[in-house]
Write a structure and sequence with these properties.
The protein has 540 residues and is mainly β. Helix content is 7%, strand content 39%. The chain is built from 5 helices and 31 strands. The strands form 5 sheets. Strands 16, 17, 19, 20, 23, 24, 25, 27, 30 and 31 form a 10-stranded antiparallel sheet that branches. Strands 1, 2, 4, 7, 8, 12 and 15 form a 7-stranded antiparallel sheet that branches. The chain has a 6-stranded antiparallel sheet with strand order 6-5-9-3-13-14, with no helix packed on it. Helix 1 runs antiparallel to helix 2. The termini are far apart.
Length: 540
C-alpha cells in the first residue's frame, strides 16, 4: 500500500468534464446562508492552509495506489467550545488530472483515541461538496481544487482534539450509465437508445432528458473509463490554535487499523461561536440563578441535554441533572444507586478507642473508576447520661480495605485522616432528624485523593472519629439498605475477625455506584454490638 505523499504525474488526456476555474458545483448539502453572524462569514476556528508541496491519496477507488481503498484523516484541536459551520479542504485528481462531474465525498468527524482517529461523532455523505473551485494553483503539475462543505445543522464540539476523515469515490465515469462495467461501450449506447427522452433516467447526464447530448457523450468517450484517484493536499500547522509540531495525519487501507503519517493536511473550519455558553457563573451542583455554571465540562454535559440551562437559567432541574453527570463531580448524598441511607433506628460506637466499625459494598460501575468523595451520618452522644454532646471536635479517619475472600476486611488499600489534611471534611450538618427520637443526627461530607476501584470489587469502608473526648463519643448510624452484614470490633479493637460480624449495615454514600453483584462473602453473624443508649434509659 502506498502511504505518504502522492507523487504520480498527471496524464495528458483531456476529458470534456473539466470544470472551468470560475465555475462552482452546488450540492444538496448546501443549507443556504444564515448560520454565521451578520456582516460576514463566521471566523475560522481551525486554519491549516495548503502548502502545495504534496498530497495524500484518500479514495475508495484509488487507481494508482498499491492497495485500494486508501483513506486518510487529519487531527485538529479546538482551544474553546465551538459550533462548526463549514469545513474547507483542498485536493487534486491523479490519473487524468481533472475532476469528475460530481464528487462522492464522505466526511466523518471522530474523537481522538490515543493520538489516532477514534469513535465516529458524525458522518456526512457520500455526496458532492457544497462548492468546488479550481484555484489556479497547481500541486505536482495538477490543478488544485478547493472544496467547502456546509454543515446543517452545525456541529457543536467541546474544546478538545478531534479527527476529520475525508475521502472521495472516483470509481467509474458518468458515461458508463448503462451497465456499470467501468467501460463506455455498447451497453451504454443501447441504454441511451432505450431510454431516449426520459428525464431522470440513468443516462440523463444533463437533467433535460436522454437525447442527442447523451448520445454524443457516449460516442465521444467510448472506451475504458479514465483512471482517477483523489488526493488530499498537505498543509501547514494550524495558525489559529497554535498547534505547533503536530504534523500528524492518519491513513488506512480498507479495514486496516489507522497508522500515523508525518504530514499535516490542508484543512480549515469556520465556527459561529461557543454553542454552550460555558463556562457560566455559579455552582453547577445548585440552582444558581444564572445561565450556565462555572465548570465548563459539567456545563457542556448538562446543556447538551437541556439547552435552557445555558440559554435561560441554571435551575434546580439542571442541578439535579448535574448530580447524574460524571463530568460534574457533584456528590449526591441521597442517590439510591450510591447510598445506604440512614434508617434512624440505631447507631454503633466508632470512636477508634473502644470500637471501630466497617461495612462492605460491591462496586457497581460499568468500568474501572475512582472513589474521591463520600458522606456518612452519625450522632454525638454521651452514653453515661444518655444525652447529646458535641458536635465535634472531629478528627475523622477513613480506611478502605479489600475483602480477603472470606468476608473479612483484608489488605488496607488506603487511609485518609482529617487531622493530617488527607481527608477534607466539611463541618457537620444537622439533618433535622433524630435517632431514637432524641439523638441529633448529623451528616458529614468528605473528599480525598482518588482510590481506584473496579466493577464487582468487594470494598470495605471504615469510618472512625478520633476527635471527641470521652465520655462524648461518635456513633455511626445504621442503615436498612445493604446486605445485612458488617463489622464492629472493640473493647478494645484488636483487628477484624469472625467474632466481629454483625447483622446490620452503616449509613454512607460513595461517589460511585454500589450494590453490585455477586454479593461479598460473609462470616457467621455474632450478637452483642454496643449500641446507642446501652446501659442507660432512652429518652422519648
Amino acid at each position: 500500500m502506498r502511504r505518504g505523499i502522492a507523487i504520480a504525474v498527471a496524464s495528458a488526456a483531456v476529458v470534456t468534464c473539466a470544470i472551468p476555474a470560475s465555475r462552482t458545483v452546488q450540492s444538496s448539502w448546501d443549507p443556504g446562508v444564515g448560520d454565521g453572524p451578520a456582516g460576514g462569514p463566521p471566523p475560522a476556528c481551525v486554519d491549516q492552509p495548503p502548502d502545495r508541496a504534496g498530497s495524500l491519496f484518500s479514495d475508495l477507488d484509488c487507481d494508482g495506489c498499491t492497495s485500494s481503498p486508501h483513506v486518510v484523516a487529519e487531527n485538529f484541536t479546538l482551544a474553546t467550545d465551538e459550533s462548526i459551520d463549514e469545513i474547507r479542504f483542498w485536493g487534486v485528481y491523479f490519473g487524468d488530472g481533472v475532476a469528475p462531474p460530481a464528487d462522492r465525498f464522505t466526511v466523518i468527524l471522530r474523537d481522538d483515541a490515543g493520538g489516532l482517529p477514534g469513535t465516529a461523532i458524525r458522518t456526512i455523505g457520500p455526496a458532492p461538496a457544497t462548492t468546488r473551485t479550481i484555484t489556479g494553483n497547481q500541486v505536482a503539475g495538477l490543478d488544485e481544487h478547493e472544496y467547502t462543505i456546509d454543515l446543517d445543522p452545525n456541529q457543536d464540539l467541546a474544546a478538545a482534539t478531534y479527527w476529520v476523515e475525508i475521502y472521495n469515490d472516483t470509481g467509474g465515469c458518468p458515461w458508463d450509465c448503462g451497465d456499470g462495467n467501468d467501460d463506455v461501450g455498447i451497453g451504454d449506447f443501447l441504454a441511451v437508445l432505450g431510454t431516449w427522452g426520459q428525464v431522470g433516467a440513468a443516462c440523463d447526464l444533463d437533467g433535460g432528458g436522454v437525447g442527442i447530448t447523451e448520445f454524443l457523450k457516449i460516442i465521444g468517450n467510448w472506451g475504458p473509463c479514465p483512471d482517477k484517484a483523489w488526493a488530499w493536499e498537505t498543509g501547514t500547522l494550524d495558525v489559529v490554535n497554535g498547534v505547533a509540531g503536530s504534523a500528524t495525519s492518519a491513513s488506512r487501507g480498507g479495514a486496516e487499523a489507522w497508522q500515523a503519517d508525518s504530514a499535516d493536511l490542508a484543512l480549515s473550519m469556520t465556527c459561529s461561536g461557543n454553542p454552550f455558553g460555558c463556562p457560566g457563573e455559579g455552582d453547577c451542583c445548585e440552582d444558581n440563578g444564572s445561565a450556565g455554571c462555572d465548570d465548563a465540562e459539567c456545563c457542556r454535559a448538562v446543556c447538551a441535554i437541556i439547552p435552557l440551562c445555558c440559554e435561560v437559567t441554571w435551575a434546580s432541574v439542571c442541578a439535579d441533572l448535574a448530580l447524574e453527570q460524571s463530568a460534574c463531580g457533584c456528590f449526591d448524598c441521597e442517590s439510591p444507586a450510591k447510598c445506604q441511607s440512614s434508617d434512624l433506628s440505631n447507631a454503633f460506637i466508632a470512636d477508634g478507642t473502644t470500637w471501630i466499625a466497617a461495612d462492605d459494598v460491591v462496586i457497581d460501575e460499568p468500568a474501572a473508576t475512582s472513589v474521591t468523595s463520600l458522606c456518612w451520618r452519625g450522632i454525638y452522644f454521651d452514653n453515661t447520661i444518655s444525652d447529646n454532646c458535641g458536635p465535634g471536635p472531629d478528627d475523622f479517619r477513613l480506611r478502605y480495605y479489600q475483602d480477603d475472600g472470606t468476608g473479612l476486611p483484608g489488605a488496607l488499600l488506603a487511609e485518609y485522616r482529617q487531622s493530617m489534611s488527607t481527608l477534607i471534611v466539611s463541618p457537620p450538618s444537622a439533618t433535622g432528624q433524630q435517632i431514637g427520637n432524641f439523638a441529633t443526627e448529623y451528616q458529614h461530607t468528605a473528599e480525598h485523593a482518588a482510590l481506584p476501584v473496579s466493577p464487582g470489587q468487594c470494598l470495605w469502608v471504615e469510618v472512625t472519629n478520633l476527635g471527641p473526648a470521652a465520655p462524648c463519643m461518635w456513633f455511626w448510624n445504621v442503615s436498612g439498605d445493604g446486605d445485612g452484614y458488617s463489622m464492629h470490633d472493640g473493647t478494645p479493637p484488636d483487628g477484624y475477625d469472625a467474632t466481629d460480624a454483625r447483622d446490620s449495615d452503616y449509613s454512607f454514600c460513595l461517589d460511585v455506584g454500589i450494590g453490585g453483584t455477586p454479593p461479598c462473602p460473609q462470616q457467621p453473624l455474632s450478637p452483642g454490638a454496643v449500641r446507642l443508649g446501652e446501659g442507660a434509659v432512652d429518652r422519648p
